[in-house]
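Dear colleagues,

For the upcoming journal club I promised to circulate an example of a predicted protein-ligand complex. I picked one with adenosine-5'-diphosphate because it came up in last month's discussion. The inputs are reproduced below in full, followed by the predicted structure.
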Amino acid sequence: MSVKSIGVLTSGGDSAGMNACIRAVVRYAIYNNIRVFGIYRGYKGLVNGEISELNASSVGGIINRGGTILLTARLPEFKQYEVREKAAENLEKHGIDALVVIGGDGSFRGAHQLAKDFGIKVIGVPGTIDNDIKGTDYTIGYDTAINVAMEAIDKIRDTATSHERLFLIEVMGRDAGYIANTVALCSGAEDVLIPEIEVNIEDTINRLIEGRKRGKTSSIIVVSEGAKLGMDVMQLAGYIQGKTGFETRVTILGHLQRGGSPTALDRMYASRLGAYAVELLIKGETDKMVGIISDELVSVPLEEAFEKKKDFDENIYRLVRILSI
Ligand code: ADP
Ligand code: F6P
């Protein structure tokens, strides 16, 4: 049966480029004579019936805006069958026969359950700054997040240099170190602490001391929020300062990394992925995630995307340390 009406929602943490993706879903569907409904506040709005039809102008002027015009939320109760049943009823009530879910692995679990329990056609689009989704090189918002973090660290470097200080800069990523690793390389950080690699503080301290002996007057260490430090980042700063005598400061970049106007790369991939999600629904596909591998559009079973862990490239980690000698 051909798809006549598609719902689109954003779920989990927002990320820059989600709006560009929503725009692509809406306009690609309308171009193909398919009606589109915006579902507000993720699964929460789906369950509460916060659904309204969108037209081509509903998504005008949003390609350059961070965040998501559909708003987003987390609804832990969506793990319960009865709650999802309410969502399925609302889709049926509005005559929506397929769903595009823009979010991370948690959102994909929810989408997969809707497909499994109620036969709803679902396609997931990876939208998270963490870039931790298996089956795709890229997730919407990652590029903007690393650029925002890099620019922030460039600014911190100015003051770190003037005061000859050590800075520990905590970045997001939940339990994945992709943001930290890439940002450390792009910022020329002295070291990076990530969840994927066992943290050895004494080794980091020795590297800092050696660096100063070679003439470095200030240093930057990027710390992933998920790195297993055995203490929090403030305590770590105190510990390093105590051991080295280097005046140390901490900056936690936090939600700054989730905002801002999306980069060209995020707008470009978000647009391609959104259109491709609709294309797959037109072809009758379901329970898949769309992604980008080596700049090509791909699709993988949703289950693969949320069950498996993405491979971690240790080469970048090693390079950060080699290039900061
Ligand atoms: P992300 O999609 O960014 O990983 P979350 O992990 O917070 O974000 O998940 C977003 C939402 O997806 C949750 O609030 C919940 O509504 C839904 N969800 C997460 N895990 C499941 C699950 N196992 N079954 C059904 N729904 C889920
Ligand atoms: O998954 C995106 C993310 O920004 C993580 O990097 C971070 O750990 C988490 O969401 C923060 O969530 P919240 O917005 O609920 O504080």
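Two points we might discuss: The mean pLDDT is 97. Residues 13, 104, 128-130, 172-174, 225, 258 surround 6-O-phosphono-beta-D-fructofuranose (ligand 2) (CB under 6 Å).

See you all on Thursday,
B. R.
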